[in-house]
Amino acid sequence: MEATMKPSHIGRKISRIRELRGIKQEALAFELGVSQQSVSRMEQSENVEEETLQKVAKILGVSTEAIKNYNDEAVLNIISNTFNNHDNSATLQGHIIHYSPSFNPIDKLMEVIEENKKLYERLLESERAQNELLKKMIKD
User: Where does the record place the HTH cro/C1-type domain (predicted)?
Assistant: First the structure.
């Protein structure tokens, strides 16, 4: 029995990589200088012109070979082998990166709110001073 090779669906691979990178069709379309519908059609196509593929690869931050050889199963294996819920580390090109935020986002938000309050108070004081100056000018 002869095994037949299933043709590589480049458009579907572009779509999967785009989704994994968190890029919307509209953003990819904008970078390519085409409409969102054109990107949708490209992602439904089995084949993509080499020149277009190179542009897409550059925008997605991968090589054309990465798109051509993309495999969902391989990606899932990489994720399952490098991710666990017990630490905040990830691997990037063989290097372990530990992600532990050193700040509380709520504290940062409160700092911004306080800064906005101070700016508002300064603006309000400036407006009061201008009003007083105008009142003085009107009386004179």
Answer: 14-67
Domain-embedded: residue 5? no
d(CA 55, CA 15): 14
Per-residue pLDDT for 85 more than 50? no
| 24 part of a folded domain | yes
For the chain, what's the residue count? Answer: 140
pLDDT at 73: 74
How are beta strands 89-92 and 95-98 bridged, if at all? antiparallel
CA-closest candidate to residue 26, choices 13, 12, 39: 39
Is 3 domain-assigned? no
126 and 71 in a common domain: no
Domain limits for position 18? 10-83
89, pLDDT greater than 70 = no
- 104: pLDDT strictly greater than 90: no
The pLDDT of residue 39 is 92
Neighbours of 90 (CB within 10 A): 13
